[in-house]
Amino acid sequence: MNDTGASVLGARGLRKEYGKGEGLVRAVDDVDLDVAHGETVAVMGPSGCGKSTLLHLLGGLDRPSGGELWLAGQRLDQMGERGLARLRRTAVGFVFQAFHLMDELTAVENVELPALLAGQPARTARRRASGLLDRVGLTDRAAFLPSALSGGQRQRVAIARALVSDPQVVLADEPTGNLDSRSTMDVLRLFEDLHADGQTLIIVTHDSRIAATADRLISMRDGAFVDETRLTGGSTGNLGALAGLAGLTERDG
Amino acid sequence: MQQEAVLAMLAKEPSHGYELRARLRQALGPLGDAMNDGHVYVTLTRLEKAGLVASEQSAGLPDRPDRKVYALTADGQQRVAAWLAEVSWPRPDLAEFHLKLIAAAAAGLADPLAIVGAQRRELLRRLRDAQRAALAEPDGSAAGLLLEGIVLRLQADLRWLEACERNWTPRKDRS
């Protein structure tokens, strides 16, 4: 039954198991998920809770042991290898903690690579890649090799690459895990911009700053969702009190 | 926040209330939004009563409703110097929350994990607000630095809540 019509991505009873008998590990254990178009969802949980495995299943990098999975209106769990590979190239953008850029390619070549692999003409791919580098604020680094870029700049290149095929959903696995505070802010700002532009985002993270940018936060433990929180609309609107300004802002303070 | 902070903002030079207000605004950015002009004048009046500030009518600005110029008295200067040297630091009230969890579990009144979860949701919303405000500040703004401090404290509190969650998870399973 496909009742995920309005969502970009949906899962029902999704499972991923490793090993068997006593050694059976339920990395993802009966997960239901619907992600609406334009939504940012953060998944948090301790190491080994299955959140990265979940992300790999959602992006077609790994095959579920059971359950149903839809992306962009297509059933992933029943799809053949070739279809899955095509879907990964066209419908999904991946951002990894370790960036995973090609060391021997320049920034712009890294960004355009997925578009070239997807069969776009070289000129179109280059134009799009250059536009995306501009968007992530790295126009002047287009001809640099990754080794000449800072960690934050590499991650921004990786985000531009994830966007080059205009994906239905961007999946990010600990995108700020290797970044300092300042670069984290750059990536946060970028994710906020993507969100404002209607990009659907699923982010697996330890970083509460990244999680706080999401519309919805899912807590995961032992392969299952244990808590789900909507973060939008709950604004306290009282930042001053957080900074200890209460004494000055209250008449009787 | 202590009144000394307002007092110290006057130490630069004798100022009109609106100048003091502008200085505070620049330092606090969006955090100062909740503070209206009335608050500043109430504080100035109190400081004046306490003999820490003196005011005099300034000449030459008949069209301004706010013609008083405020300046530190000798006592006020001493107070500011003492305040600058003071090693005070706001103390987060962690003990209260800690006891809340212990009391809830001991009396079986509430699930500590549910309390931790509710607290985490609240802190994440605050983090979201603070972070949005921080991202909206231009590079190098004074208010941006203050917001960064709020964000870092909230992150520390959220990490402590993770520790609380780890601590209470097995206890819950045993009971």
Question: Keywords, please?
Answer:
heterodimer; A: 253 residues; alpha/beta; Rossmann fold; 4-stranded antiparallel beta sheet; 9 helices; 26% strand; globular; disordered C terminus; B: mainly alpha; Arc Repressor Mutant, subunit A; 2 domains; 3-stranded antiparallel beta sheet; 66% helix
CATH superfamily of chain A: P-loop containing nucleotide triphosphate hydrolases
CATH T-level topology of the largest domain in chain B: Arc Repressor Mutant, subunit A
Instruction: Please list the strands of the largest sheet of chain A in the order they lie side by side.
Output: 6-7-8-3-9-10
CATH architecture verdict of chain A: 3-Layer(aba) Sandwich
Per CATH, the architecture of the largest domain in chain B is: Orthogonal Bundle
Number of domains of chain B: 2
- Provide the helix percentage of chain B: 55-70%
Q: Rough shape of chain B?
A: elongated
| Major sheet: arrangement of strands of chain B | 1-3-2
Describe the largest sheet of chain A: 6 strands, mixed
Summarize the structure in words.
The complex is a heterodimer of chains A (253) and B (175). Chain A has 253 residues and is of the alpha/beta class. Chain A has a single domain, classed as P-loop containing nucleotide triphosphate hydrolases (Rossmann fold). Chain A has helices at 51-58, 81-90, 107-117, 122-135, 151-163, 181-196, 208-211, 239-242, 246-249; strands at 7-18, 25-36, 40-44, 66-71, 74-75, 92-96, 169-173, 200-204, 216-221, 224-230. In chain A, β4 (66-71) and β5 form a beta hairpin. Chain A is globular, with a radius of gyration of 20 Å. Mean pLDDT of chain A is 88; it is low at 1-5 and 249-253. The model of chain B is unreliable at 171-175 (pLDDT under 50). Helix content of chain B is 66%, strand content 7%. Chain B has two domains: 3-85, Arc Repressor Mutant, subunit A (Orthogonal Bundle), CATH 1.10.10.10; 94-174. Chain B contains seven helices and three strands. Chain B is elongated. Chain B has helices spanning 3-9, 17-28, 37-49, 74-85, 94-107, 112-136, 142-174; strands at residues 15-16, 53-57, 68-72. At the A-B interface, α6, α7, α8 and α9 of A face α1, α3, α6 and α7 of B.
